[in-house]
Each structure stands twice: as C-alpha cells, then as structure tokens.
Structure to design on (740 residues):
C-alpha cells in the first residue's frame, strides 16, 4: 500500500467529511440557527479545499520575512480563500439578522412554522 | 426535408399593421352606414341569465379571481394535487430538490 | 490627458455604481433631494459608459480588458496569466443594455412608489449595488471574479427583497432566497476548485484552450449548470422565485428579473465558450432542453391556480425562462454538426432575443402590478375588480405587456417565439407543439388576470382610486416604448444586437 499517497489525500478527505456534515445539517435539521451553522461548516470546508489545492511537496509558505528558502507555494489560492472568508462573514451576518426579524414576526424559528408563502 | 425548409428570419410587422388599418377602415365604413337614430334600451347591455333577475350593475355581477377556470383545474385534479402539494414552503425541501437535480444530471452526463 | 474612455469602459461601468452607492448616504445627510439627484446622476453616467462600450463593440468588435494594465497575451505567457480579465463582447453589451434600460425605468418608477417608506438611503445604496453586481456577472472573464459578483448580487437582492420588513412574509422570502443562494455559491466554489486544481488558470480564455473532458471536468460542469439554472429559475430549482418576486417592492422586481437572467448569460458562456466541444454536447443539449420544457410547462400550469397578482406573474417569468433554455438547448445539441448551419443558429438567436424581450415586457407587467398594489393596497385577485374605469393608462400598459407575453402578433414576443418555433420544429416536432400549447395557456392566464382586475362594474370599495402618479407612468412608458420599438423593427434588432451575441459565444459553423 502506498502510504505516502494516502497520507497526501488526508486534507481532501477532511474536506469531503466536513462538507457532508454541513450538507446533512442543512438538509435535515429544522431549527433555523442550526441550518445557518451548517452553512458556516460548509464554508469552512470550501475554504480548506482551496487552500489545500495550492500545496506542492517540499515548498514553503509564501512569507518573505525569515523564510527558510525561496521555494514557495504560489499564493493565488490563498488570495481566493481570503476573499471567500470575507464573503462568508457578510452572508452569515445577513442571514442571522433575517432570523432575528423572523422571530419577531412569526414567534418561532422552526422551518415547519415559517411557511406563510406556500404553493 | 431539410432542403424544403425556408428560413425567414424577419417577419414584417409593418405589413400587418397596415393590413390592420385597412380592415379598421372597412369596419368604420360599415359602422357609419348604420341607423343613427337608435336609442339603447336597458335590455341591450345586461347579460341574459335565463330569465332570472339580473343583480344590476353591482359587484355581484362580476365573476373574477379564483372562480375563473374552476372547471379546468377541477378536471385536471389528478395532475394539480401532487404539483401544488410539492410546493410546501419548507427550506429543507427546496434544498432536497437542488441536491437531487445535481445527482440526476451527473448520472445522465456520465452514462449517456 | 489621454485616457482612452472606450478601452477602459468595462471597468468604469462597474466602478461608477459602486462609487455612487457609497456616496449616496453621505449626500443624504445634507439634503434629501440631493440624494435622489446623486442616485439618478450615477445611473445616467453608467448608461453613458454602457452606450460607449456597446457602440465600440457593434462597430469595431469585442475586446478583452486586463484589469490593472498590461495586454492580453496568448496561452499563459505574460501578465494575463495572473490578472483578472474583463470581456467586452456581444453578450456583455446586450446584457448591459438590458440592465440599463430596466434599471432606469425602475428608478424613475421607484421615485414615487417608495415615498411612504423610510430608510430610503439604504434603498438607493442597495439598488446601485445590485446593478453593479449584475453588471459584474456578465462583464467578467474570470471564474473567481464571477463568484464574487454572484455573491454581491445575491446579498443585495436578498436585502432588497426584505425591504418592507414590517410584513413578515417579505423577510421569510428573503431568508429562503439567501439560504439557497449561499449554498449554491458554495457548490460553485467547489467546482472552481476542481477546475483550478487541474489546470492552474482561472480565466475563461485560457481554460477554454486547455480543457479536456476528464471526469472531474464533468463533475464541475454539472455543478456549474445546476447552480446557474438555480439563479435563472429553471424548474426543479424554481421554488424561491415566486416567493422572492411577489414580496419585493414593485420596481425592485423589474430589476430582479434581469438579475435572474444574468444567470442565463453566464450559463451560455460556460457551456459554449468554456466547455464547447470538449464534452458530449448532444447529451448536454438535451439536459438543457429538458430543463426548459419542464420550466415552461410547470410554470404555466402553476400560474393558472394562483390567487395573488405578483405570484402569478412570477410563475410566468419561470415559464418564459423555459423558452430561452429551449432555444439555446437546441442550438447546443447540434453544435459542431452540419445542421447547426441550417437551424441551430436560428434557435440560438430566437432564445437570446427572447431574453431581452422578456426583460422588457415582464418589467412592464410587474410595474403595473405595483401600481395596483400602491393604489388599492390589496394583493389578492378576489378582492379587486372594476379598476379599468379609473386607471386607463395602467390598463393600456397592462394590455401591451399581456399581449406581448402571450406571443400575439405584432408584438415582440411573437417575433422571438416564431424563431424558436420554426427551428425547434425541425429538430423535434413534439417540443415545438409543447411550446405552442404553453403559449396558449399563457394567454389564458393573462385574460383571467385582466378580467379580474380591470373589467367589471365600478366597485365602491376601490372607487377612491385614481390614476397612478406621473413618475410611475413615465417609468412604465419607457419600457412600453422599448417593447413597441422592438415590435416594429425586429429584424433590425436581431441583426444589430442579437447576432453579435451569438457570434461572441464562439459558435463555429
């Protein structure tokens, strides 16, 4: 068994497990706060995926001060991840403020009750 | 069969409007040939309700809203009942449909 | 100063709404009239830049704009490997023109429509942000930039849907819209990761040259197609659209229609330019066709049982999106084969022409529904009646919109639907027959709405209604004028606006 190859895919397996946990929470839980937390877990999984795509074996993190060597990972994916983290912050804040308003109008945050717009 | 297909990309709406104006002119000429001294009676404008008393010009005369097409929806009840039932309004169901569509499209794109 | 405005116009189209969006609350502290003046000034400056870019695209040709200087160099050399590209071609020009006309009409309309609400600083800011987001989605040539503008557009759209937050249903609709958009955006990010990990580049041009049809590419393709179909409102993913369109304020819905169509534009770019012939286009074309047929049929049959005006019109928007998917799906299914020359190109032109027609007459219809809600305060069809006696101009605009959407000659809906019927019939006759039946059911549904609202004796409870205020009539008149203009000269519009868009998709005969 090629242990090294399996070891290299551990970040990707973590991404899949985290994404599935988040997706399970969003699909099957009825409390709105739990759904938003599931979305946050999925955002973390997607960011981890982007960061772990950029790794090359034997290269170091792209920080210039007191660097061990100048063989560095290309930081394009890190820039994408930073953007994605900020977008995740904005969307989570907006979703949570919507939940506050819904609690004020409907009195409960169960998705079976929050359904006046049907059919 | 493909050779007989004539592809006309543009159709000419100005020709249609011109024809409409000419027909309107003919209609107007026929209208003016009528009798100008005819007075409308009450019975000319009311609907005929098989001899029943008409409710007059009030709101009860106007059938609108969800009463129209009642026969159509009632006749196709077997199709409409599951369709309207599928639109529940629960967020989790909306996400189920999203995941199921991704799954079906992935299977179709792989194996066909 | 030699600043070449024409070359920099894609960046300026995006920068101007963003700048004025954040300038508006500052000016609003000084005076209220100044805030409205700045709002309209921003929109008109953006319209100027859109017309400059469109003129250049239609006379000279499209170009790619490297954001931050530098030139576009082929295949991974030079600075275009690292920078973000914006693309100004037929598709960008057509989408920006649609958005500008719709936004100006909606802005003039909302000047009077929103006057009873407070918090109008935030309304103007969010409106300009939404316009910037939708413009960004169609102007960009880079996948991750597309994700950023997708999220900007969905956040600002959700906040605008929840604008009347004294009603609980508006906030609920916005919450559902936001949850689905965020989950879809996360799947989108995954597919960007798949493509980036394989090829190392992110812009459309370089990816299109390097892409092959490996299995990971197919997974990325399915995720991209389904996510963009959710943004556009195709059928198994359409559940958020009626809630969102019916609860938003009237003028916002007219621009939300164009925001949903941005998903369609990007879908066409992904399927034709990015993937092209690397995947089996026959299968992919049939998938798009099936999505289109389902949207058309389920959209219109759900619309026949609705009891509220705006929800009914939202289901019709879903149904008309099916026409666009059908036309372009037929073009996709015959890509690369000799039939493309005969009817595939006509199908694509019909589908793409239908997009701009739909934005115009649907915006007009939503604005008339907004007028009715503003004047009477009632949304349900059962309570309305006899409004034709007092609202004559609104009735005329509604008739123009309803005849255009049903595809009655001589309006512009008929011109684009005729192109779709002709070409789809020679592909497969059954699809064309289903399209015609859906068109008849559309007409039936709008006759129902027209009779319920405008016909009938004058009702005492709604007898105090008067005609709509002048700015609202002006906003509706702009869109109705464009509808009539497109109806009288469809050939001119197709050859000027639609054909460059079809060629920009890289369709090689």
């Amino acid at each position: 068994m090629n242990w090294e190859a399996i070891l290299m895919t551990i970040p990707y397996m973590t991404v899949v497990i985290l994404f599935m946990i988040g997706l399970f929470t969003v699909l099957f839980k009825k409390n709105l706060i739990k759904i938003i937390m599931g979305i946050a877990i999925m955002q973390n999984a997607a960011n981890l995926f982007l960061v772990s795509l950029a790794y090359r074996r034997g290269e170091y993190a792209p920080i210039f001060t007191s660097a061990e060597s100048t063989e560095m990972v290309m930081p394009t994916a890190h820039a994408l991840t930073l953007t994605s983290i900020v977008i995740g912050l904005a969307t989570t804040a907006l979703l949570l403020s919507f939940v506050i308003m819904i609690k004020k109008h409907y009195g409960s945050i169960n998705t079976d009750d929050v359904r006046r717009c049907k059919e | 069969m493909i050779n007989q297909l004539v592809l006309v990309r543009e159709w000419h709406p100005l020709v249609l409007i011109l024809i409409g104006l000419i027909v309107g002119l003919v209609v107007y000429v026929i209208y003016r040939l009528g009798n100008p001294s005819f007075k409308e009676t009450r019975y000319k404008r009311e609907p005929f309700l098989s001899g029943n008393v008409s409710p007059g010009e009030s709101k009860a005369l106007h059938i609108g809203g969800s009463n129209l097409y009642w026969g159509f929806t009632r006749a196709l009840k077997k199709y409409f009942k599951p369709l309207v039932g599928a639109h529940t309004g629960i967020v989790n169901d909306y996400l189920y449909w999203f995941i199921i569509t991704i799954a079906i499209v992935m299977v179709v794109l792989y194996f066909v | 100063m030699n600043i070449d405005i024409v070359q920099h116009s894609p960046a300026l189209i995006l920068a101007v709404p963003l700048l004025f969006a954040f300038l508006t609350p500052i000016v609003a502290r000084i005076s209220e009239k100044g805030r409205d003046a700045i709002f309209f000034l921003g929109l008109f400056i953006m319209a100027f830049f859109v017309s400059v870019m469109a003129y250049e695209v239609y006379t000279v040709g499209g170009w790619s704009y490297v954001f931050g200087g530098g030139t576009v160099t082929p295949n991974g050399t030079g600075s275009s490997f690292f920078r973000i590209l914006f693309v100004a071609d037929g598709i960008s020009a057509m989408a920006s023109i649609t958005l500008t006309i719709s936004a100006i009409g909606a802005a003039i309309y909302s000047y009077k429509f929103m006057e009873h609400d407070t918090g109008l600083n935030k309304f103007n800011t969010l409106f300009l942000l939404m316009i910037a987001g939708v413009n960004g989605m169609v102007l960009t040539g880079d996948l991750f930039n597309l994700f950023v503008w997708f999220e900007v557009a969905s956040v600002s759209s959700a906040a605008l849907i929840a604008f009347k937050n004294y009603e609980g249903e508006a906030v609920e609709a916005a919450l559902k819209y936001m949850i689905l958009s965020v989950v879809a955006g996360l799947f989108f990010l995954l597919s960007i990761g798949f493509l980036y990990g394989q090829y190392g580049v992110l812009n459309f041009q370089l990816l299109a040259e390097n892409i092959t049809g490996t299995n990971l590419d197919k997974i990325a393709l399915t995720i991209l197609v389904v996510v963009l179909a959710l943004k556009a409102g195709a059928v198994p993913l359409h559940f958020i659209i009626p809630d969102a369109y019916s609860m938003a304020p009237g003028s916002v819905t007219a621009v939300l229609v164009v925001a949903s169509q941005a998903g369609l534009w990007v879908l066409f770019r992904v399927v034709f330019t990015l993937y092209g012939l690397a995947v089996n286009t026959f299968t992919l074309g049939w998938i798009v066709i099936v999505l289109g047929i389902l949207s058309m049929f389920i959209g219109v049959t759900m619309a026949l049982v609705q009891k509220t005006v705006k929800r009914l019109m939202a289901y019709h928007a879903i149904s008309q999106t099916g026409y666009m998917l059908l036309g372009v799906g037929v073009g996709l299914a015959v890509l690369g084969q000799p039939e493309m020359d005969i009817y595939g190109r006509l199908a694509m032109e019909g589908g793409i022409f239908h997009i701009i027609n739909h934005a115009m007459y649907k915006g007009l219809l939503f604005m008339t529904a907004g007028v009715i809600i503003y004047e009477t305060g009632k949304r349900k069809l059962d309570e309305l009646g006899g409004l034709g006696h007092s609202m004559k101009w609104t009735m005329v605009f509604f008739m123009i919109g309803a005849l255009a959407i049903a595809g009655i000659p001589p309006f512009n809906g008929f011109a684009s639907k005729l192109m779709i019927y002709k070409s789809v019939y020679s592909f497969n006759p059954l699809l064309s027959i289903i399209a015609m039946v859906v068109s008849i059911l559309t007409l039936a549904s709008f006759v129902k709405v027209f009779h319920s609202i405008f016909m009938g004796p004058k009702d005492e409870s709604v007898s105090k209604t008067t005609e709509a205020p002048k700015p609202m009539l002006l906003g509706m008149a702009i869109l109705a004028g464009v509808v009539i203009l497109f109806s009288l000269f469809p050939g001119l519009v197709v050859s000027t606006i639609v054909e460059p868009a079809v060629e920009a998709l890289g369709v090689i005969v």
Observations:
- Confidence is low (pLDDT under 50) at residues 1-8 of chain B.
- The helical segments of chain B are 13-32, 70-75, 77-86, 91-111.
